[in-house]
Design goal:
Layout: E1 2-13, E2 16-27, E3 31-35, H1 42-49, E4 57-62, E5 65-66, H2 72-78, E6 80-82, H3 95-102, H4 111-116, H5 119-139, H6 154-166, E7 172-176, H7 184-199, E8 203-207, H8 211-217, E9 220-225, E10 228-233, H9 235-240, H10 242-249
Parallel strand pairs: 3-8, 3-9, 6-7, 7-8
Antiparallel strand pairs: 1-2, 1-4, 4-5, 9-10
Helix pairs in contact: 3-5, 3-6, 5-6
C-alpha cells in the first residue's frame, strides 16, 4: 500500500531551480533511499515533505492527507518524523528528557491539567516516561537515560535523535544522513537499527552518502541530480544504471562517494 506520494514537486530559490518536477512513492513498510551527488536537491525534497519549505508546485500526500501548506508540527502529528543532517538535540537535557520531548506531540493534557496535576495528567505523564524508556531500549541507550545528551559520544547522539523521532509514533520517519560521521562499526549498528524500526511497522525515507549503507538497507532507491529524478529502482539496478554512474563519476573526485 502506498504511504507517501510526492507528485510533480518543484521549488526555486531566486533564480535557482532546486527541485524540478520530482515524483516518487513510498510503500508502507519500505525503506526507500534517496541519493544523488552534492547539491542534487535531496535535503530540499526532505524540507518540502516536512513543511519547512512550501513547494512552488506539486503535492505531498500521506495516505489521503495533502501535507502542502501544513506547518512542520502539524505534519508531525499526521505521522511524519525526521532527523537532521546536523544534530538537533537538547544538549543540556538528559537522554530520557530528550525522548520525552518527542512525546509532546502525542500528549492530551493541556495547560491547566499540567498546573493542577489532575489524575489524567499524572497517568499520562507516567505513560510518557514508560514509553520513552522503551524507545531508549530500542536504540540501546536506556542505561544512559540520566546522562546529559551533550555528554554522549557522537554515535550515541545519533541513536538518541532517532529514538526521539520514533517517540512521536510516526508512520514515516525521514533520516537525513544518519551515518554521517560514524565509523564502520557504528554504521552497521545503524543498519541493524533501521531494520528493527522497519520491523516495527515504521516506513523509512533515507538520505545517505554512505553507499554501502544505502545499498544494504534500501528496498528501492530514487536518484536525484541537479534537482531532477534521473533513476529509480532496486539497489542492483541503480548500481548498473549509466545515468547514475555518470552523475556521480562526472563530479569532482572529492564530491563523489560512489563506493560499494
Amino acid at each position: 500500500m502506498t504511504l507517501l506520494q510526492v507528485r510533480d514537486l518543484s521549488k526555486s530559490f531566486g533564480g535557482l531551480r532546486a527541485v524540478n518536477d520530482v515524483s516518487f512513492e513510498i510503500n508502507k513498510g519500505e525503506i526507500l533511499g534517496l541519493i544523488g551527488p552534492n547539491g542534487a536537491g535531496k535535503t530540499t525534497v526532505f524540507n518540502l515533505i516536512t513543511g519547512i519549505y512550501r513547494p512552488d508546485t506539486g503535492q505531498v500526500m500521506l495516505a489521503s492527507d495533502n501535507l502542502v501548506g501544513l506547518r512542520p508540527n502539524a505534519i508531525t502529528k499526521k505521522g511524519i518524523a525526521r532527523t537532521f543532517q546536523t544534530l538537533r538535540l537538547f544538549p543540556n537535557m538528559t537522554v530520557w528528557e530528550n525522548v520525552m520531548a518527542g512525546r509532546h506531540v502525542r500528549t492530551r493534557a493541556g495547560f491547566w491539567l499540567g498546573v493542577f496535576k489532575f489524575k489524567s495528567e499524572r497517568e499520562e505523564e507516567k505513560h510518557i516516561r514508560e514509553t520513552s524508556i522503551e524507545y531508549l531500549k530500542l536504540v540501546g541507550l536506556e542505561h544512559l537515560k540520566d546522562e546529559l545528551a551533550k555528554s554522549l559520544p557522537y554515535g550515541d547522539q545519533r541513536k538518541l535523535e532517532i529514538a526521539r523521532a520514533l517517540a512521536t509514533e510516526p508512520k514515516l520517519v525521514i533520516l537525513d544522513e544518519p551515518a554521517g560521521g560514524l565509523n564502520d562499526q557504528e554504521s552497521w549498528e545503524l543498519v541493524e537499527l533501521m531494520r528493527k524500526v522497519r520491523d516495527m511497522g515504521v516506513t523509512i525515507l533515507l538520505i545517505e552518502h554512505d553507499m554501502e549503507v544505502v545499498m544494504n538497507i534500501s528496498d528501492r532507491i530514487v536518484v536525484l541530480d541537479n534537482g531532477e529524478k534521473i533513476a529509480e529502482g532496486t539497489p542492483e539496478a541503480i548500481q548498473q544504471d549509466s545515468r547514475v554512474i555518470e552523475a556521480y563519476l562526472g563530479k569532482e573526485e572529492e564530491e563523489s562517494s560512489w563506493h560499494f
